[in-house]
Task: inverse folding
């Protein structure tokens, strides 16, 4: 049989990496799971969600209620675009309403073999 080789890969979405203490451990865990060949295309995006904006706090209900009451912004990066064998032309967070997350959009280019 013939083998299919996937050379260019994109994994994107909400990875729920709250990293409350900003240790960087969760991002490191992603890198270990995905492998060193993957790069975070959104590495220059500092945050994609502000817990003060969440409508339905599920993971930290009392913490979210407290920061909402005190009007404290608790911003974290939950959304990533992990790429393999692609070049990043541009990647940015888009400030739009309608979601508790800000979307991340990347312009990528396939590498020549």
Result:
């Amino acid at each position: 049989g013939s083998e299919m080789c996937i050379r260019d890969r994109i994994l994107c979405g909400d990875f729920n990496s709250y990293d409350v203490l900003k240790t960087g451990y969760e991002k490191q865990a992603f890198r270990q799971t995905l492998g060193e060949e993957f790069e975070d295309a959104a590495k220059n995006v500092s945050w994609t969600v502000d817990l003060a904006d969440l409508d339905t706090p599920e993971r930290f209900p009392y913490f979210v209620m407290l920061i909402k009451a005190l009007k404290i912004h608790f911003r974290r990066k939950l959304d990533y675009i992990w790429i393999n064998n692609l070049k990043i032309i541009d990647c940015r967070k888009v400030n739009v309403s309608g979601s508790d997350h800000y979307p991340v959009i990347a312009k990528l280019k396939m590498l020549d073999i």
Helices lie at 25-34, 61-69. The first strand starts at residue 9 and ends at 14.
